[in-house]
Amino acid sequence: MAGESSEYAVQMHGITKRFGSFCALQDMNLNVKKGSIHSLLGENGAGKSTLMNILYGLYQADEGEIFINGEKVDIKNPNVAIEHGIGMVHQHFMLVDDFTVTQNIVLGNEITSHMGIVDAKKARKKILDIVEKYGLEVDPDAKVSDISVGMQQRVEILKALYRGAELLILDEPTAVLTPQEIDDLISIMNNLAKDGKAIIIITHKLKEIKASSDICTIIRRGRYIDTLLVKGVTENELATLMVGHEVKLVVDKTPANAGEVVFEIKDLIVKNDRKLDAVKGLSLQVRKGEIVGIAGIDGNGQRELVEAINALTPVASGHITINGKPLENTSPRQVIDSGVSTIPEDRQKRGLVLDFSVNENCVLEQYRRTPFSKKGILLKKEMEEFTKELIQEYDVRPEDCGSRRAGSLSGGNQQKVIIGREIAMDPDILIAVQPTRGLDVGAIETVHRTLIRERDKGKAVLLISFELDEVMNVSDTIAVIYDGKIQDTFKQGTVDENTIGLLMAGGKNHG
Amino acid sequence: MDKAAKILKKPFTMTLIAIFFGFLVAGIILAAAGYPTFHSLSVLLQGVFSGPKHISNVIIKSTPLILTGIGVAFAFQTGLFNIGAEGQFIMGCVAATTVGIVCDFPPVIQIPLVLAAGVLAGAVFGGMVGFLKAKFGIHEVLTSIMFNWIALYFSNFISDLKRFHKPDTMGTYAINKSGYTMILGSWKTTKEGKEVLVNNEFLRDTLLKTDVNAGILAAVVLAILVSFLLYKTTKGFELRAVGANRFAAESTGIDVNKNILHAMIISGGICGLAAAFYITGNSPHGIATLAAFENTGFNALGVCLIAASSPIGCIFAGLLFGGLLYGGQSLQYEVGAPSEIINIVIGVVVFFVALTHIIPPLVDRFSKGGKNHAK
Q: In tens digits, what is the pLDDT along chain A, a chain of 511 residues?
């Protein structure tokens, strides 16, 4: 173990943190050198965020010591962390939408004249200095609600730098970015590191670690596993260390054996909550035995499209058909009964009733059918048996969770319940929206295998995801959505990531 | 420690703690106001438990609270805050009274008829709130508060109508005797009945000195029925799903608006039934001209809160509430303490029940603290 030294921006030794009887971190170590980009890799619930929250003063460690620049510190709260030059960019940005970029950056740390009046000019100058120094391109006078997600993230980074951060913690920084924006972010990170700042990124995306980081610390179930030079390891090796057993990163699948068109969307127009067109004349076909993936950045009409298919929102014009039968502007139940099953994007809002037991959630669509009820009376035993089978088939943990609240399950297990339930409906088309959001490598593998298995059974699958890798890997046909329209479609293997990334950002395909 | 923590986290234990604190605060206030605390509290308890007559009166006082509480709890379980229970109760009273006065059939027909009138009025009044929410998205709290006032003035209007108003009184005529629901009501006024009752102290106290009515039986049956409906039927499954997460319910094919409407109709109907039993079982068996709300429906919200929205729990919470209201009277005429002290007790109990959500984290903190010290 490294001794305390000012060569390190931060050193955390023997950190242990318990929540009640659950031990989130045990004897965890982390040493981050100045001027380095250090990734913290681990599955969901491995303890990455807990460790960073301890460093940022949001939690207190039960045991262990923290050193900053070789000096022992006691970080009681985030203010102390900021004083020590620690800045954190959370996964969900904490910006005031109606404020300008400058106002957001100075908020809580305003430069004032001796009369207590905010000196906006001085603040603006200070910000522009930082912007220039690190290539953090932002418009200081734009309103936050008007700028892109990538720029919002830069504003968050600026906020930390403005407060004098020497160590930046980025929590899943790439989750919301396009491939191009990710490249920009990496170059900004390199600029910061060159200037001697240390950066910790929390992530479970192996590719980005390879692309961005110098050093990687792996954490598994709250325990320290290893710290490696990123240059010397492969993605597969990292994945194996993270999960604890070998995983396949690239999905194994045979070429699609596509049949006739089952599901078709024609010239669909759907309005959003603000009565503006969100889906603007979208057309799409999905065949039997084929996975069609829609790649695109969040907010390009995907949500409205799914809601329209599920008859949750009215269709302004156009048609949605399954087996030739129109679905538009019917009812959610009719859509389900016609053979459409959906794994919704927001599993806690649309997918599950968290206060219901897992048993009840498993029959959320089928409670009225035999054998789960008879003449309006629920048959508990049949429900329980069905759930038991589903739990076993999809490896939901804990195994005996049938009568527990669905809300007590981890995110990955909640997702397994939903996937199992939807597939048990035996649909003609399975629509999977962000099916692996927030899941770790092991669980992602299971979900992808499940989708492919359904395809091989001859089902049509429509995959909608903001993860470009996922769409590229799993789909047989890749469609790119931008501004409510399908920009182009490709067969898998005939297109590269950059072309798709460009189309996702609204660029034209010149290929 | 773990075992103690587990017991402390049970809802029932938490409710008991809340009740304890309710009395504690009441005791402090009594002492501060210069009344003998322990004497006052023992008077309160004696007022409730000192004999069959008192217990019987507590039950009578509690019955409408329990029934209305079940109505409110039903709505709560389906995600609706039925603050309109007061208005639905008043409308139920109006309907039961008018039908009970106008019609005069033999009891086998008259009683169901009057009860049905109450249920129907409550259901329609609750249903309107549900309709407005389902159709136009107007929040049920807003509409039902206004509907409460409509009910109050409609009730006064009926009570002042020449057809129903009993001259030289503040209210209507009593409903026809064929609609009474007191237990053995007609038999006990006959000569033979009186003879039997006078010679038996318990029966004399409960049946002769008080008017025990069938409402309490209905309340128990209804609590079981409502529990069955909510937890054992597909309809209840839908209603609870809509209440717990309307978005997930909608996505999985459950008609949210229809279920909101149904929930309010059923909840209102139960409040109407409470009203019908109140009219048929309690003198003066009619409605009075009201200057302000009588608070049955509002108190039912408290009952429901204490019961944590459990229909069965409403029976016990209603008895507690009724006991405090009834016992509070003896506090007034024996100690001279203002009966408002009872409202304080009830208020504090409800307050602490609402606060009980902080007990589990507190227990966790203390048990963790203990472990840290042990190290």
A: 456 778 899 999 999 998 777 788 999 999 999 999 999 988 767 888 889 999 999 889 999 999 999 899 999 988 899 999 999 998 778 888 889 998 899 887 777 777 777 778 888 888 888 888 888 888 888 888 888 888 888 999 999 999 889 999 998 888 777 778 888 899 999 999 999 999 999 887 788 888 889 999 999 888 999 999 999 888 888 888 887 877 766 777 888 888 899 999 999 999 988 888 999 999 999 999 999 999 988 888 999 999 999 999 999 999 999 999 999 999 999 999 999 999 998 888 899 999 999 999 999 999 998 889 999 999 999 999 999 999 998 888 788 888 889 988 877 889 999 999 999 999 999 999 999 887 777 788 889 999 999 999 999 999 999 888 889 999 999 999 999 999 999 999 898 888 888 888 777 655 4
Please state, in angstroms and rounded to a whole number, the distance separating the CA atoms of residues B20 and B342: 14
**Contact (CB<8Å) B252/A352:** no
Q: Rounded CA gap, A41 and A219, in Å?
A: 6
User: pLDDT > 70: what percent of chain B?
Assistant: 92
Judging contacts by C-beta atoms under 8 Å, the chain A residues touching residue B364 are 20
Contact at CB, B237 and A333, closer than 8 angstroms:
no
Long-range Cβ contact pairs of B143-146 (< 8 A, separation 24 or more): B143/B84, B144/B82, B144/B83, B144/B84, B144/B87, B145/B83, B145/B84
Segments making up each domain of chain B, as ranges: 53-318
Instruction: Say yes or no: A200 contacts chain B, CB-CB below 8 A.
Output: no
Q: Is A357 on the interface with B (CB under 8 A)?
A: no
> Do the Cβ atoms of A352 and B249 come within 8 Å?
no
Residues of B in contact with A350 (CB under 8 A): 247-248, 251
Polymer length in residues for chain B: 375
Read off the tokens for A155.
């504003």
- Better-predicted residue by pLDDT, B319 or A20: B319
B245 to A355: CB separation less than 8 angstroms, yes or no: yes
Query: How close does chain B come to A146, measured CA to CA in Å?
Result: 29
Residues of B in Cβ contact (< 8 Å) with A378: 232-234, 236-237
Among the listed residues A414, A504, A486, A464, the one whose alpha carbon sits nearest the alpha carbon of residue A303: A464
What domains lie within chain A, and their CATH numbers?
8-243 (3.40.50.300), 248-339+427-511 (3.40.50.300), 352-424 (no CATH)
A312 near B CB under 8 A: yes
Give B213-268 pLDDT, tens digit per residue.
889 999 999 999 999 999 999 999 999 999 999 999 999 999 999 999 999 999 99
Helices (H) and strands (E) in chain A, counts: 16, 22
Contact with chain B for residue A330, Cβ under 8 A: no
- Among A336, A349, A368, beta carbon nearest to B247: A349
Query: Chain B residue closest to A363 (CA)?
Result: B252
Give bridge partners of residue A88 from the DSSP assignment: A169
Cα–Cα distance measured from residue A222 to residue B212, given in angstroms and rounded to the nearest whole number: 64
Cβ of B233 and A356 within 8 Å? no
Cis peptide before B311 (omega within 30 of 0): no
Residue A373 sits at the chain B interface (C-beta within 8 Å): yes
What pLDDT score does A109 carry? 77
Closest C-alpha among A132, A201, A192 to residue A165 = A192
**Is A352 in Cβ contact with B245 (below 8 Å)?**
yes
Q: What single-letter amino acid sits at A290?
A: E
Q: What is the β-pairing status of strands A485-491 and A477-482? A: antiparallel
Of A332, A349, A377, the CB nearest to B253: A332
Q: Which of A20, A349, A376 sits opposite B235 (nearest CB)?
A: A376
Does the model's ipTM exceed the 0.85 cut? no
Q: How far is the alpha carbon of B286 from chain A, nearest alpha carbon, in Å?
A: 39
Give chain A positions within 8 Å (CB) of B232: 377-378
